[in-house]
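Narrative progress, year one. The postdoctoral researcher (J.K.) led the effort to move from monomer predictions toward full complexes, under supervision of the PI. The following entry was the first complex the group processed end to end, covering 224 residues in total.
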Amino acid sequence: SAVISQKPSRDICQRGTSLTIQCQVDSQVTMMFWYRQQPGQSLTLIATANQGSEATYESGFVIDKFPISRPNLTFSTLTVSNMSPEDSSIYLCSGTTDANEKLFFGSGTQLSVL
Amino acid sequence: QKEVEQNSGPLSVPEGAIASLNCTYSDRGSQSFFWYRQYSGKSPELIMSIYSNGDKEDGRFTAQLNKASQYVSLLIRDSQPSDSATYLCAVNFGNEKLTFGTGTRLTIIP
């Protein structure tokens, strides 16, 4: 498995601002994903980060709110735009290196929006 | 709608006993199944994967899969306090993505 470094680990932000979360993998991964985990909830997939092209978003998530970049096979960013308190959550990036989709995760970003 | 269901618990098990965690899923054609452990404030870590019917053992952990019943379980033998965590069941419904259940919170009582 690979190791994913995710930053920041936590942040407190003001309503209406944006935060960019970065993930760096120590080896090439085939797929990268961004998940959200709200307090006491399970993981909800936001989008698949596609290398060199636009991300594929799940129902309920849109590019204007959660722009994602993946310029190469080891790096991706997620921006949470125009934040509101409802965006307070843990955001997790993840990746897989095999066809059976064994996912491994970054350490997560705990976001609080005031 | 592809769904993964788990009993949210909490499930309390005495130290040394067997903890049994259960998961059902909605699509009989699913091929890949995973159990993740998540400690409070930490990210999920993969502990077991299973792809075919039957049992798969890894140390104190045994994953059991019954595709006909759309059921996957995780047994933890000789439970330790360090096993106290939330256990997430995840299923690949054939679309290269994992869908997670809501998780079962397990507490091992010393």
